[in-house]
Amino acid sequence: MTRVLALCLAVLLTAAAPAAAQTSQEMAALAPKVMTLAKFAEGIALLEDLEDSPQYLVMQRLRERDPSLLDGFENYYLEVDVRGGHGTVLVCKSGATAVLFEDVGCKTAIERDVRTQPTPGWCTYVLNTKAVCGR
Where are the chain's structural domains? Predict the structure, then answer.
């Protein structure tokens, strides 16, 4: 009986490993796209002289100018906004249950990445764009 349970556990763990690797690969593929979206939103903030914008405005501009930038985010909750005069991106698990990335377009690295900074909690912005960007 113990052997059977151990074998079942080993099979389950082995079967789950590729799924975890897939998720890790997906996250690695999404990270540069998140930064590109943040830079795009930062550009919209500058071009349209926006302090804050409703989400639909930046998403509308994305769809008009380069809808391919949204490729790969189909299975995630995605917000692309202008907050405090800066482009911001928030990516969460489907259903908006947990944050995966939060980025501000004024920097060259992602500010919040669950791979390096586990962040429990709801899918919500926590970064202060003015503090992050210094203006």
Answer: 31-133
